[in-house]
Amino acid sequence: MFTRYFSVGRKIVFSSLLLGLIGALLAGSLQLMIFHHKRAEQYDAVINDLQAYLNSYFAELLTTIDKLQPLSLSPCASVAADLTSRAAFSLNVRAFLLVENGNATCSSATGEMNVPIKQLVPQVDISKKLDIEILPGTPMMPQKPAFALWVRSPLLENRGVFTSINASLMPWLLYSSRQNQFSGIALATNGTAISTFSSHPQPTSMLKRTPIRSATVHGVPLSIYLYGDEWTVESIQFSLLMGAVCGLLTGLLCYYVLSVRLRPGKEITSAIKRNQFYVVYQPVVDAESMQIRGVEVLMRWKHPTAGEIPPDAFINFAEAQQLIVPLTRHLFQLIAHDAPVLKKLLPPGAKLGINIAPAHLLAESFQQDLKDLSHMLPANYFQLVLEITERDMLSQHHAVKLFEWLHHEGYEIAIDDFGTGHSALIYLERYAFDYLKIDRGFINAIGTETVTSPVLDAVLTLARKMSLVTVAEGVETQEQANWLRDHGVNFMQGYWISRPLTLEKLLEAHQKPENYFTTR
Ligand code: C2E
Ligand code: CA
Ligand code: CA
User: Is CATH 3.20.20.450 the right assignment for the domain spanning 266-510?
Assistant: First the structure.
């Protein structure tokens, strides 16, 4: 989880991106759904309005036609005026024709006539009680589509009224001009339709794809079809924009919240409070006698969810978060807590090797923190050894003074990881170290190289000449131990001697006579 400081950063970025994406998808699709719902409501309202309009229009017209039916009993001349005025007062009606035995006998437009209705409108079936057809035009208005409505007289046999109705002024024009999301409206009967897509009647089969809404007119075999888009470009664009904005906001919010809550700084402070750190001790033995001479204190973090986090990782965090000082103070507390038991396990003068991070070394509180630790430990029993690396010594002046003070106060100093690049030979000359801890990289090489470790050999010779006490780190095999002993290494530390142990395990090992680091 926290293998590196930046991996947390990456985790935060990744989570924020993911949540942002989810936010964008949710907001975008919600917006699209809202649009869709609104649109559906509008379509419903329009088709209902259209249906209601046409229902009432035809109901009124049929009532008028009912009143006209008896007129066919009278001579045309005597009823023509009545017929004409009725047509004039009936909305959209072009003409009423009185029909008797299949012949149109009287017209509201032209007066008396005698023309077979079949000749006028071949499609109309006058054997039906009611029939409606769509015509491309009427004799007087041949270019303007019309409805032809036939209504047989319910009482008088072989008579009826034929009506031609303007199809051009139908309400769809009003609707289609007002509602821009509709692509069109069609009215259809008997396989023919008039629509806003064409100025002429068309076969119904030629109409566009399926309508989004349809309805029928009450009392007349007429269907209303509404055409439009389920999704419009604008609504999709707006939803995308909405999704992008919401996604961005969610991502930013998530980033902020996670940064505040997940950053390791917070984690480390709360881990201190929750006692998630503990220490292990790795024995350091005398190379000749193999007797334990001290321990190196190594910190551990048992994270409740991430498990054991290696110290390399969280020490780096703590340094990056400027939390190394409180963390080391906490370490000092843990050591002080274990000190009474350690006193029983380790001989007087036993060395407690403590790793000191560069940032702490340079901190103002460093000297006071050390004094506090000394006060918490049993008086005059342990020898504190501060393990530091070359990179810790930023300012020479500061380091020289500090080392003087440390020696004056009775602390010892070890140069850690010697040979890894963190330490350089020049520092050996410049600073007064007590111990040289040879990095396990060199120890590993023992026995694997054809010419046996010339560099290590040289380092040991140099150390001897400079009267530096040497500690070999990471001793993993007997072969390595033998080689090191033969080449005059003073102390050894490594898995072959003992792994780092908790206080309980250290106690157990001490109590068993066959215990490896006292008998080997
Ligand atoms: P280091 O100071 O070089 O500590 C020795 C590391 O080598 C430890 O790893 C130890 O477990 C490991 N080690 C010991 N013997 C062997 C061996 O035979 N073979 C191998 N392969 N490894 C061995 P650990 O505990 O993971 O610590 C890693 C580093 O974290 C330490 O390196 C030290 O730089 C830092 N560290 C640990 N505890 C603290 C602390 O309390 N404060 C500070 N500032 N740094 C700490
Ligand atoms: Ca160390
Ligand atoms: Ca080391």
Answer: yes
Which CATH class name applies to 68-166? alpha beta
Rounded Cα distance between 349 and 380, Å, is 8
What is the C-alpha separation between 394 and 388, in angstroms, rounded?
Answer: 12
Provide the token pair at 197.
């897509």
Cα of 416 from ligand 3 centre, angstroms: 5
Where do we find the tokens 């690396």?
389
- With a 6 Å cutoff on the Cβ, whether 133 touches ligand 1 is no
pLDDT reported for residue 447: 76
Atom of ligand 1 nearest to the CA of 389: 34
Query: Which pLDDT belongs to residue 162?
Result: 95
Per residue in 72-105, is it b (16+ CB within 10 Å) or e — as a string?
Answer: beeebeebbeebbebbeebebbbbbbbbbeebbb
Beta carbon of 330 within 6 Å of any ligand 1 atom: no
Parts of the chain belonging to CATH 3.30.450.20: 68-166
Q: Using CA atoms, how far apart are residues 247 and 22, in angstroms rounded to an integer?
A: 7
How many angstroms separate the alpha carbon of residue 298 from the centre of ligand 1?
6
Angle at 273 between CA 268 and CA 274, to 5 degrees: 95
Angle among Cα 237, 242, 245 to the nearest 5 degrees reads 125
> Please, which pLDDT band fits residue 393 given cuts at 50, 70 and 90?
low
Q: Which of 514, 447, 440 is nearest to 478 (CA)?
A: 447
Which has the closest alpha carbon to 295: 339, 357, 246?
Answer: 339
Spell 350-370 as b/e; 16+ CB within 10 A means b: bbbbbbbbbbbbebeebeebb
pLDDT reading at 171 higher than 70: no
Residues with CB under 5 A from ligand 3 (ion): 416-417, 473
- How do 111-116 and 213-216 pair as beta strands? unpaired
Residue 230 CA: distances (Å) to CA of 24, 38, 210, 226, 495: 22, 11, 12, 12, 72
Query: Which residue owns the Cα nearest ligand 1 atom 45?
Result: 355
Which atom belonging to ligand 1 lies closest to the Cα atom of 387? 2
Q: Where are the beta strands (DSSP E) in 324-382?
A: 351-355
Least confident of 32-36, 256-260, 358-362, 415-419: 256-260
Arithmetic mean of pLDDT over the chain: 87
Output the pLDDT for position 180.
60
Question: From CA 486, how far away is CA 480, in angstroms rounded?
Answer: 10
Nearest-CA residue for atom 12 of ligand 1: 474
Domain with CATH 3.20.20.450 in the chain: 266-510
pLDDT for 2 equals 47
How far, in Å, from the CA of 472 to the mean position of ligand 1? 13
